[in-house]
Structure formats: C-alpha cells, structure tokens
Amino acid sequence: MPNKSNLILNNAIVDDEWTLVTMPVVEEAVKKQAGKVVLFKLTGEATHNAEQIASTVIPSSGKILVPLSVWLARKEELAPRHANGELGIWLDTHELVEDLASAIDDINSLPLIAVHVERFADGRIFSIGNLLRTRYHYNNDLRAFGDVLRDQLFFLKRCGFNSYLIRADRSAEDALASLQDFSQPYQGAVDINQPVWRRVNRQIAPQ
C-alpha cells in the first residue's frame, strides 16, 4: 500500500514529485547565552562546512530540491538540471534570501523554492515568504516544510506560500481544512493586497 502524501499544493493534497536532498549531519556545538541554550540560529550564520557540501549526494535523475549552500557551491554541476526545470532550492530560516536572489539571473527559472522550519516557533519563515513574493517577485511554487503545523497554514498562505509539507505525525486533511479557518482576512497581505474595508461594500440600511 503506497504511503499517504502529506503535501498540500494549491488547496489539494498531492503526491510529491521532488526528491529532498539533505547534507550529511555533523554534531553541532551547544550554544548558550546567559546560561540558557540558544535554540535558533542567527540570521546569516554559516552552518554548513565545505566537506558537508562536497559530500552531499545528489540523485542523477528526477526533480531535486537541494540546499541553498550546495547549489551556491556546485552551480556548474547542477546547471543542466536547472536548465531542464529539474532543480528546486531550499533554505533554512536563518539563511539569507538575498544570497539566493543575487546568485541567479532569473529567480523564476526555479520551479520550486522551499523554506525549512526547524522549530515551529521560528517566525522568520513568514518574512522570507513575503520577501520572495514582493521584493523578488517570485511567482512559482513556494513551499514550507519541516516543523509545519496546522495553525500556521492560513498565515503562511497570507505571506505567499502555496505549498506545505505537513509533519509526518500530523494529518494533511486537517491541515488542509485550516486554510479555510477565516472567511475574510482583515488586513491586506501577499495573497490579498487590499484590507477588508476596501474589498467589501457594506451599505448602511436607512433608518
């Protein structure tokens, strides 16, 4: 029996056509500040070394979703996959969108960009989605994956995401329903740029 998909794309549960490429795991030093463990990496912090990047195994065929640092270091090797529309790029929330945008001539030549959430409490994913859609005018599939929970999907959609890979221990059906949690968002955002008072004509009944 095939595994049930946990990928939501454009308001439907679909099979995932992309192979996620990950780097070899290395032991990370525990960082502390004022005696407390620091859970989140600093924005712009370099967290992958040259050995990890060089030893990352990339499938020889099919659609691949590769880490940003691997693509930046191995662009020439991956150029044919990029040209064939078989290359997507994913980044962690602490990585800089600017590094991706400045290293590619046409960001819309990428059919998929994904943002990995290590911990659901990391709100930087919302800013990243907004930047990709508004500042860099990315128009293709924008995916959130990792520690992605039901309660965040509606707000991720508002920031420009249209694809969500739900945690394996959670229900994709339940998460899909959450996209309809609110009938009329009040504020303007990426998905609907006008606030509700500009979208809805409320006529006052005569006294």
Question: How is this structure best described in words?
Answer:
The chain is an alpha/beta fold. It has a single domain (7-18, 46-182), classed as Aldolase class I (TIM Barrel, Alpha-Beta Barrel). Helices cover 27% and strands 19% of the residues. The chain has eight helices and ten strands. The protein has helices spanning 50-55, 68-73, 75-83, 97-102, 124-134, 153-158, 172-178, 196-199; strands spanning 7-9, 12-14, 18-20, 32-33, 36-37, 63-67, 87-92, 112-117, 141-146, 163-165. Strands 2-1-10-9-8-7-6-3 form an eight-stranded mixed sheet. A two-stranded antiparallel sheet has the order 4-5. The chain is globular. The relative contact order is 0.14. The model has no long low-confidence stretch (mean pLDDT 85).
Q: How can the largest sheet be summarized?
A: 8 strands, mixed
Evaluate the radius of gyration. 19 Å
CATH class: Alpha Beta
Shape: globular
The CATH topology label is TIM Barrel
Domain unit count: 1
Query: How would you spell out the order of helices and strands?
Result: EEEEEHEHHEHEHEHEHH
CATH architecture annotation: Alpha-Beta Barrel
Residues in helices, as a percent range: 25-40%
Strand arrangement, major sheet: 2-1-10-9-8-7-6-3
What is the total tally of β strands? 10
Oligomeric status of the shown chains?
Answer: single chain
Mean pLDDT figure:
85
